Amino acid sequence: MDAIGIIGAGQMGSGIAQNAAASGLTVLLADREQSIADAARDGIAKRFARLVSKDKISETEADAAMQRIQPVSDYGAMDQASFIIEAATEREDIKQAIFAEAGKVLRSDAILASNTSSISITRMGANLPDPSRFIGLHFFNPVPVMELIEIIPGLATSQESVAKTRAFAELLGKKIVMSEDEPGFVVNRILLPMINEAIFVLGQGTANVADIDKGCRLGLNHPMGPLQLADFIGLDTCLEIMRVIFESTGDSKYRPAPMLMKYVDAGWLGRKSKRGFYDYS
Ligand code: CAA
Predict the structure, then answer these.
(1) Which stretches make up the 3-hydroxyacyl-CoA dehydrogenase C-terminal domain (predicted)?
(2) Tens of pLDDT along 92-149?
(3) What is the side-by-side strand order in the sheet with 69-72?
């Protein structure tokens, strides 16, 4: 495979870049500011250094993988990519703007994928010149560790694009779950209402943060409790996903918990802002 492009060098984009480079792919890692893309590359270098120190990979392998990552700020560079993954903020307007820009340089044989957690692939693809080459490819955080990937064809996505995307996901070493283009797809449709419910449970004083998480860790064998996981995902992302599910189903059981909205209003977004249900300062 030629180079792949990743647009959005945040938590998810960086994880995808690390995973792809470790799988032998050349990666163009793009963000709107060169400094953001460069910082993401530095973060990936630290992750590889940790893997080397734990004897998970050799220094030579880590160096070779880092050589394959090229941070860029000009989306024009995406004309070299045979597979482009958008991993920007979970907001449809931001994503649409990226597709419009990347669409201008998209090769005629390239696939454009979105790492959206919940937004309709069919609707986002409808604005592209060729919706048959647009698909949902949903990674889980931390990307290099989580085995799962969801593949979501939109109504207009071609079988050829699905086959190419499956081959790409397998190259990254992922296990695939296919999902119809429905709000939240498979995993987030189940996970986010659970997290939202945990916030309702907290809000009505049934138990405190520590006990809600302890209950789910010890009683369900989840690696993280729902509130710790919400902080890990980002409370703004959790709220966006709940809003998408709520608005597209119109079902009141998916209404976002008032406390979730309040925390996001306060800028308490979880780990990334150093404050959420826990304090990370
Ligand atoms: N990036 C890359 N690797 C990471 C990482 C990161 N951000 N964080 C941890 N790791 C790696 C570590 O290097 C370590 O690797 P090795 O085993 O090879 O040494 C491994 O993960 C385990 O890490 P730790 O020992 O430090 O910590 P842990 O055992 O507590 O595991 C965890 C950390 C993997 C994050 C674990 O707590 C976990 O699985 N949590 C649940 C994660 C989860 O549910 N993710 C899905 C979120 S939902 C989503 O992503 C979809 C969406 O659209 C919202």
Answers:
(1) 184-280
(2) 999 999 999 988 899 999 999 999 998 999 999 998 989 999 999 999 999 999 999 9
(3) 69-72, 27-30, 3-7, 81-86, 111-114, 134-139, 148-153, 175-178
Task: Check pocket membership of 56 for ligand 1, CB cut-off 6 A.
Answer: yes
Host H or E run for residue 3: strand 3-7
| Residue 88 to residue 96: CA distance in whole angstroms | 10
Contact 133, 161 (CB under 8 A): yes
How many whole angstroms from its chain centre is CA 10? 9
Kindly provide the ipTM of the predicted complex, given to two decimals: 0.92
pTM equals 0.94
Is the minimum distance from the CB of 157 to ligand 1 under 6 angstroms? Answer: no
In order of 36, 177, 246, the CA distances from 187 in angstroms are 29, 9, 16
Domains along the chain with CATH numbers: 3-178 (3.40.50.720), 188-272 (1.10.1040.10)
Cα–Cα distance, 189 to 253 (Å, whole number): 12
Residues annotated catalytic, as ranges: 117, 138, 150, 188
Radius of gyration for the chain, computed over Cα atoms and rounded to the nearest angstrom? 19
Q: Give the number of other Cβ atoms within 10 Å of residue 72's Cβ.
A: 21
